[in-house]
Amino acid sequence: MSEIRYGIVGAGYFGRALGTAVNSLPGARVTSVFDPENGARLAEDLAPTNVESVEKLCAADDVDAVIVASPNWTHIDPVLLAAENGKDVFCEKPIALSYSDCARMVDSAREAGVHFMAGHVMNFMSGVRRSKKLIADGIIGDVIFCRAIRNGWEEPQKEVTWKKRRSLSGGHLYHHIHELDFVQSIMGPATRATMVGGNVAHSGPEFGDEDDMLVISLEFGNNTYAAIEYGSAFRWPEHYVLIQGTQGAIRIDLQQTGVTVRAGENSESFLLHRNQEEDDQRTEIYNSTSMDGAIMYGKPSLTPPLWLRGIVEEEMAYFHGLMQGNSPTEEFAALSDGSAATATIATADALSRSLTEDRKVDVREIVSEQEVAVRSFSPTSAAKH
Ligand SMILES: NC(=O)c1ccc[n+]([C@@H]2O[C@H](COP(=O)([O-])OP(=O)(O)OC[C@H]3O[C@@H](n4cnc5c(N)ncnc54)[C@H](O)[C@@H]3O)[C@@H](O)[C@H]2O)c1
After folding, report:
1. Rounded to whole angstroms, how far apart are CA atoms 349 and 367?
2. Tell me, what CATH number does 203's domain have?
3. Mutation pick for ligand 1 pocket among 35, 163, 179, 254 (CB with most ligand atoms within 8 Å)
4. I need a surface site. Which of 89, 92, 148, 383 has the fewest CB within 10 A?
């Protein structure tokens, strides 16, 4: 099987992590990097070419697939360019900051017949995968409610990064889209969305302009509901997802790391990550006083923790498998064509509108305003390598 060659757009904290994971896979090699600021440094470490423009990277003969890991607001251009050039794409979360951009990205990939995988890495946590399997097997009955909480307290920042600016990152809701995506992967797409909150405790030059308290309720149209909280205005940090079924419940603890299932008389617990070391390191980070795990932000000079590198390795191995001709698995099909990510952003947009207009918003409002509907597709490019 011929080697698959990857180009990376954005060589910061996560571009480096994705590139390192790619280079460790058999039959995979990073050949090019584009980053206006940090390209040279990553090129030196991963031994690819440091190209001067995103256009050049997407058109390069020695790039089969493009990995987009630039700041959130910049994702759309490289994705569209990659698709135009017939290149498969992996794009970091959130794939875009509006439903209309997501729909354009998904449509252009579908028209070009290339894969468009979203970097919703939570799906690759082993405890999350096992939980979803137990739910699909009916162990907890019908899921009727989910509660997801991801919050903490932000101290004054020496330097306010793009991750804290609403227009650049999307704020907590878009930047930490994982929990919303996870809830929808269990309960289906939300039909009605309500969000209250705002910036309640973090204004001034040492902070960004994102809202630091977001309180969400979701309806799914069949008497099932979810409640989600995000933010950095919470002195008592929490990070978990609780899934309530008619026969039992599952608690995924992302802070005291681990998963617990209760069904009838039975209770069982298992790891969230691949091994005890990864789980323990996560717990240690969350419990340290210097870093608030749930709202921790990377920067180009940092290396992600062991547990995060672990799920990135799993995620890149799956994407590389697609590049080698594997068909999307049922488990990850909606991740592999951008449809899950797009449905999540539709709900995020409905929530944003709910907050701005102080009303409950039907998610169809967001979707029907766009001429381009989200359609799932079967990539025809899988056999081309
Ligand atoms: N899945 C996860 O758990 C996870 C974790 C961290 C980051 N991310 C995502 O990865 C992406 C990158 O985040 P990060 O933490 O690496 O940020 P970062 O700030 O560390 O790095 C971003 C890099 O992009 C470069 N850049 C800026 N504008 C660019 C452009 N137009 N084209 C190419 N490069 C550009 C910057 O110079 C910088 O080197 C974001 O979308 C973020 O949400 C995902």
Report:
1. 10
2. 3.30.360.10
3. 35
4. 383
State in Å: Cα 284 to ligand 1 middle: 25
| Ligand 1 touching residue 50 (CB < 6 A) | no
Quote the domain boundaries for residue 217.
123-301
Instruction: Provide the number of structural domains found in the chain.
Output: 1
243 located within any domain: yes
- Are the C-beta atoms of 100 and 40 separated by less than 8 Å? no
CA–CA separation, 154 vs 231, rounded Å?
Answer: 9
Residue nearest to atom 6 of ligand 1 (CA): 14
The tokens for 201 are 């405790």
**Which pairs with CB-CB distance under 8 Å and at least 24 residues apart come from 73-81?**
73/97, 73/162, 73/167, 73/168, 73/169, 73/170, 74/10, 75/105, 76/101, 76/104, 76/105, 78/9, 78/54, 79/105, 79/108, 79/109, 79/116, 80/104, 80/105, 80/108, 81/54, 81/55
Count, residues in the chain: 385
- One-letter amino acid of 82: A
Q: Is residue 320 part of a domain?
A: no
Whole-number percent of the chain with pLDDT over 90: 87
pLDDT tens digits for range 187-241: 999 999 999 999 999 999 999 999 999 999 999 999 999 999 999 999 999 999 9
